[in-house]
Amino acid sequence: MKRILALLLCALLLAGTLTLSSCDKDKTDGPAFCMGFGYAEIDVPTGSDDPLCIAGYHQGWEIGEVSDNQRASAVWIDTGCGDGILLISVDCIGLSSATCDDIRDALKDFTKRTGCRSINIFSTHDHAGVDTLGLWGDVAMNGKNADFMDNLIAAAVSAAEDAYASRRTGELYFGSAETTGMQRDSRTPEVYDPNLYQFRFAPQDGGAGIRVVLYAAHAESMRGDNTLVSRDYPGVLCDRVKAASGDDTLFLQGAIGGLIMTSVQTDGDFDAVENRDVTGQRLADCALSIDPAAE
Fold first, then answer.
1. Beta strands of the chain (E only): which ranges?
2. How far apart are CA 100 and CA 153, in angstroms?
3. C-alpha span between 272 and 281 (Å, rounded)
4. Rounded to whole angstroms, how far apart are CA atoms 25 and 3?
5. Is 46 exposed, middle or buried (0-12, 13-18, 19+ CB in 10 A)?
6. Mean pLDDT, residues 130-140
7. Tens digit of pLDDT for each residue in 231-273?
8. 14: CB partners within 8 A, 6+ apart
């Protein structure tokens, strides 16, 4: 699996026709990678004509309060030759191909200006976010809120611009750690990957780094009765890593199937926020424990 994950990054680089041979690396000294990070919060619109439905469970359930805003996060990566690829991770249940096309269209000028070879868009599969697919409105009604979707696209563009503007040179490391008692598969056959995988970028200037973390569990630690808007456990994971190490973190959802989920439970009556926080904190501690020995 470690080998597959390492090859995944290589495949992304190759998919963008980004290879070391695209510039004369034999004549280039210093670090092999250049990376940058950016994020922007997706504002929840007020006074909108369309309902704001929470995604993942029930038809027509509107959101309650905002615990923490959903985000679009981006990582730029190249091999020191200028042309690079962009990873955009959005805290949401999922994105249609049409929305992904809208994001790419909004980044046309960015693409031309930066020489970006490919834009790879992911969702964290957040079950505590606003409906971005239109599947959780009232029966036979589109659950998408047009204003929220506009804000999502704008946040993705802003995150991309910040990622490119903040790029630095450095080295890239890969590592993983096995999680214990964090997942369960609710359907047979019970098969899941208990490992948390991490790429960590260490900048040459000695400052805080960038992490790309991949873990396989539905982002639904707040469960089905929740109406709070939140990034769920991926948000807590990224925030805790930032607070503990200074590193910015982009979360990628792994092979979650149907249905691999986190199994952490609080003592006594279930508390959605507490369960989210405990889940995210434990996974962050796991990420922070990884010894990035493989350059």
1. 33-41, 71-78, 84-90, 118-123, 168-178, 183-185, 195-203, 210-215, 248-253, 260-262
2. 9
3. 14
4. 24
5. exposed
6. 96
7. 999 999 999 999 999 999 999 999 998 889 998 876 788 999 9
8. none
Which is nearest to 179 in space by CA: 39, 32, 280, 37?
Answer: 280
Identity of the residue numbered 65:
E
Q: Is the pLDDT of residue 65 over 70?
A: yes
In this structure, is the dihedral angle defined by the CA atoms of residues 210, 216, 220 and 223, taken in order, positive or negative? negative
Closest CA to 180 of 256, 286, 293, 277: 286
**Cis amide leading into 31 (omega within 30):** no
Instruction: State the distance between the two ends of the chain, measured CA to CA, in whole angstroms.
Output: 17
DSSP state of 130: B
Residue 111 has pLDDT above 80, yes or no: yes
> What is the pTM (predicted TM-score) of this model?
0.90
Contacts of 256 (CB under 8 A, 6+ apart): 125, 216, 217, 218
Q: Tell me the pLDDT tens digit for each residue of 146-203.
A: 999 999 999 999 999 999 999 999 999 999 999 999 999 999 999 999 999 999 999 9
Judge whether residue 21 has pLDDT over 50. Answer: no
Number of helices (H) and strands (E), helices first, in the chain?
Answer: 6, 10
Can you give the pLDDT at residue 1?
53
Helix (H, G, I), strand (E, B) or coil at 140: coil
Mind giving me the DSSP string for 142-208?
Answer: ----HHHHHHHHHHHHHHHHHHHHT-EEEEEEEEEEE-SS-EEESSSS-----EEEEEEEEETTS--
Helix (H, G, I), strand (E, B) or coil at 283: helix
The three-class DSSP label of residue 41 is: strand
Q: Do 200 and 173 meet the contact criterion of CB atoms below 8 Å apart?
A: yes
